[in-house]
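User: Good morning. I'm curious how zinc ion would be positioned relative to this chain. Could you predict the structure with it bound?
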Amino acid sequence: MDSKGARMASGCLVSAAEAAERGLAYINPRPCECEWCGRALKPLGAVLNGRVAWVSHEECGCEASLAAAAEEEARKAEEHERAGVSRLLAAGIPKRFLDAPIRVQACERYLLEFGDNPERGLYIHGGVGTGKTELASALARRFVEAGYRTRLTTTIGMLERIRETYGNEASSLEACKLFGKCDVLILDDLGKENSSAWSVMTLFHLVNMRYEEMLPTIVTSQYDPSRLSARIGRGGERETAESVASRIVGMSMTVRLLGTDRRRI
Ligand SMILES: [Zn+2]
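Assistant: Good morning! Here's the predicted structure, ligand included:
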């Protein structure tokens, strides 16, 4: 048992003297000493069915043992932090934007009100360099930390991932579920993908799946809402593209990013 475990459990552990006093059965404990200062430490035992099992020892409390315990705590905290970071990376947040702040008030408000309106998405649009990916990452982090199964992906990345599964029904279904059924999908740079009948139909399938499941989708794009449909459907599939765009925009609060100010209009 580690020292923290011993601390937590010491309330119900007994020393040899206590065990003798209470008439408990035990074999004599092996002597133990502080690994830092060498002081002899009282062994502590757990009582089960009237017998004592020696599982721990008292804490020494010398400077070196306290320092070692503090170091151990710090190591665990760091491990915890690393686990948190790997959760963020696993959700698709780029390393560069792990600590991105939410600089847009409208998005803070969106998060605050999210509980009242959990199927509402966001449509964030603005030119190149307005911080769309940074903002998408910051939003993703907040959702991950709040315990939502969150997936951040570029639209191109998502379509590639699904295309790779083409011909394999099981993994195709899995990919669709990954994006279609996660609690929060954040789709970066919609409209940048090539437009083909396949890409538009796939987007429709996903967006519609989320619409029917009442799951929120956050989208970033260079294109303002009125141009989205034409952009997605520039390869032909205009009607389906229209459905994709109206589902997305219709379910979302629109946020426009301006230059480096990143303010909402
Ligand atoms: Zn000691």
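Residues 1-80 form one domain. Residues 168 and 174 are 10 Å apart (CA to CA).
Let me know if you'd like a different ligand tried.
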